[in-house]
Write a structure and sequence with these properties.
The chain has 350 residues and is of the alpha/beta class. The chain has eight helices and 18 strands. An eight-stranded mixed β-sheet has the order 1-2-18-3-4-7-8-9. A six-stranded mixed β-sheet has the order 10-11-12-13-16-17, with helices on one face. A two-stranded antiparallel ribbon has the order 5-6. Strand 8 and strand 9 form a beta hairpin.
């Protein structure tokens, strides 16, 4: 494993930004160079975060990355430490204002920020998986966007189950946004943070043939690594988990942003990263990194998927559909449906 320092002009936070590259893949097999980005959002400043995204993407591409995965909620921000003024039966005026600012930092899908991300992917000729906060009207969703190396937006996944207080600020995704995209570098999909612990969601993705399983997260605990290793082994797939590394000073200072549950020391680490790349055999190819902002890269030997599936194929020879099966309701769910729209849509639906 080589440790390669990046150019200093690409740094945003203090401290080194570096790449780990695993060169141990079998050169006779088809391989894909993948990079997971471990870096912090510029909170409440979406244009600046997009600029930072492009610098990081350019850096990854300079190392030959073909696929780049960013953390959960990188565009729009993960509001760590905030409770939005919520207690049972009450919401404070400051909490409502905090949500207004958070809503303003989110992005529309489609929208100009999506167009810019697509242009970045095309400019640097990489497949891009980006965690965003999506705004639809006045409801926010924790979402992952997918782009191909030609600069085309492929689609999105909305987090189906926000965790704990996330349910106060984010809506719930439905079964219509659990995609796995077939691309020349493999079948790519994503699950976000703790929804990776949902066995039925994973089973749905395995059934779609996922080969490169992206897991943007906000969980930097050591135990997260066990979940990522288990998914790689269970699914016979590569797992790419990207998390932010951030300090208190990466968020607005008090009293604008009150950071509960931690000290207010600007240099205190509030999310330690732990980004990692794991093979279908459960081997850690790169990471986990807990040291700072980083580009963590590995060459994925796609032949390892077939070797792993020979041992265990959870939706193939190791399944028992006559005993255990799963039904996925993958149509969009809407609170209001207008019959005139349904009539207009007849004949155009696939």
């Amino acid at each position: 494993m080589a440790l390669i320092p990046t150019n200093s002009h690409s740094q945003v936070n203090e401290g080194p930004l570096f790449a780990e590259v695993d060169m141990g893949a079998d050169s006779s097999a088809t391989s894909v160079r993948a990079t997971v980005v471990q870096a912090s959002t510029i909170f409440y400043d979406t244009p600046a975060t997009l600029d930072k995204s492009e610098r990081l993407l350019a850096e990854a591409a300079s190392y030959g990355a073909q696929l780049v995965v960013f953390p959960e909620a990188f565009i729009g921000g993960y509001p760590r430490g905030s409770n939005f003024g919520v207690t049972v039966g009450n919401r404070t005026a400051k909490g409502k204002e905090d949500f207004r600012k958070y809503h303003a930092a989110a992005i529309d899908v489609p929208g100009p920020e999506v167009d810019r991300l697509a242009a970045m992917a095309g400019k640097y000729k990489v497949y891009l998986v980006m965690g965003v906060i999506e705004r639809e009207g006045y409801t926010l969703y924790c979402t992952v966007l997918f782009f191909d190396s030609q600069g085309r937006y492929l689609g999105k996944h909305r987090k189906v189950m926000p965790t704990a207080l996330e349910r106060v600020i984010w809506g719930f995704g439905d079964g219509s946004t659990i995609p796995v995209f077939e691309t020349p570098i493999g079948k790519i999909g994503a699950a976000i943070c703790w929804e990776n612990k949902m066995p039925l969601l994973r089973m749905a993705m395995y059934a779609k043939g996922i080969e490169i399983y992206c897991a943007p997260t906000a969980d930097s605990r050591d135990v997260w690594q066990a979940s990522m290793t288990h998914i790689a082994l269970e699914g016979g797939c590569f797992v790419l988990s990207a998390n932010q590394f951030c300090r208190r000073k990466d968020y607005p200072p008090p009293p604008e942003y009150l950071f509960l549950g931690t000290e207010e020391d600007p240099d205190s680490v509030v999310c330690a990263g732990g980004s990692v790349i794991i093979s279908p055999s459960g081997t850690v190819l790169a990471g986990p990194n807990y040291e700072g902002e980083a580009l963590i890269s590995a060459d994925l030997d796609l032949g390892a998927i077939a070797r792993a599936k020979f041992d265990f194929d959870v939706v193939g020879h190791y399944s028992r559909p006559e005993v255990l099966s799963l039904v996925v309701r993958d149509h969009p769910t809407r609170p209001v449906t207008f019959t005139s729209e349904s009539e207009k849509g007849e004949g155009t639906q696939k």
